[in-house]
Amino acid sequence: MQLSLRSIFLIALPCLLPVAAQAQIPPPSAPRTPDLLGIYTGMPAGPARATLQKHSNTVNVQLAAHPEQGFGLHISDPQHPDEINVYLTDAPNDPYVWMVQRTQIFSGRDGTPLSLDVVLGALREKYGNETMSSDRGGGGLYVYWLFDQNGRLQTTGDPSLQGCDANMIVTYMSTGVNQGAMAANGACYKAFFAVKVVFNRAAPPLLNGYSIELVNLPLAFQAAMKTGAMKNAGANKAKQDELNRAKQNRPTF
């Protein structure tokens, strides 16, 4: 049987596709769920900022002092105070979201009170039943929803992940993660993709306030290491250029 060139190409195509796929750099993991206020981790900076601005018709989103700190929306209205911050990856990554934080504090007589049952009920309606929680006394209740990297809610999780703190990587986003931090926080950098809520229950059943964050530490870690590799390469090149100039700077005696 004689095969045409088209037939040969179609037969060979499945063999070629894996090679082409391996040559491509996959985009960051960016499941559209879970989200916080419509913003999800892996979301590009532009759409994320536009989405955040929809949260207020009177207050504008403001850029943070440093690019990797992203932008925020801070509403100081005593009736409904709201502070939202969105954190972004640094170059050479395209800027995309790796964490969203929101804080609401009941300011007393002038503010609208918050109920633990109502706020927690709204969170369960959005994310499902929490993966785990911890009552740390002093009015502090910590609640966690853990997800895999495809955004699927986990029914159980390693209790040690309750010690993960997103602030542990904020300072490394523009420099790369050093060996000491990797050794101390390796489990968090590997697995902590979560919605974490801290409730301040100083006046039960009402809340003094709460803080919620959606964070993907594995995504953040990958981005930080890419940033660190670029900066290390630049520093090494600058050092080599300096050495080359020193070798050419021969004084006359």
Could you outline the blueprint of secondary structure elements for this entry?
Elements: H1 5-23, H2 45-53, E1 62-63, E2 71-75, E3 82-88, E4 97-105, E5 114-115, H3 116-127, E6 132-137, E7 140-146, H4 167-170, H5 179-191, E8 193-200, E9 206-207, E10 209-216, H6 217-248
Antiparallel strand pairs: 1-2, 2-3, 3-4, 4-10, 5-9, 6-7, 7-8, 8-10
Helix pairs in contact: 5-6
In short:
The protein is of the alpha+beta class. Helices cover 35% and strands 22% of the residues. The protein has one domain.
Describe this structure in words.
The chain is an alpha+beta fold. It has one domain (34-248). The protein has 6 helices and 10 strands. It has helices at residues 5-23, 45-53, 116-127, 167-170, 179-191, 217-248; strands at 62-63, 71-75, 82-88, 97-105, 114-115, 132-137, 140-146, 193-200, 206-207, 209-216. The strands form 2 sheets. Strands 1-2-3-4-10-8-7-6 form an 8-stranded antiparallel beta sheet. A two-stranded antiparallel ribbon has the order 5-9. Helix 5 runs antiparallel to helix 6 (217-248). The protein is globular and about 85 Å long. The termini are far apart. The relative contact order is 0.14.
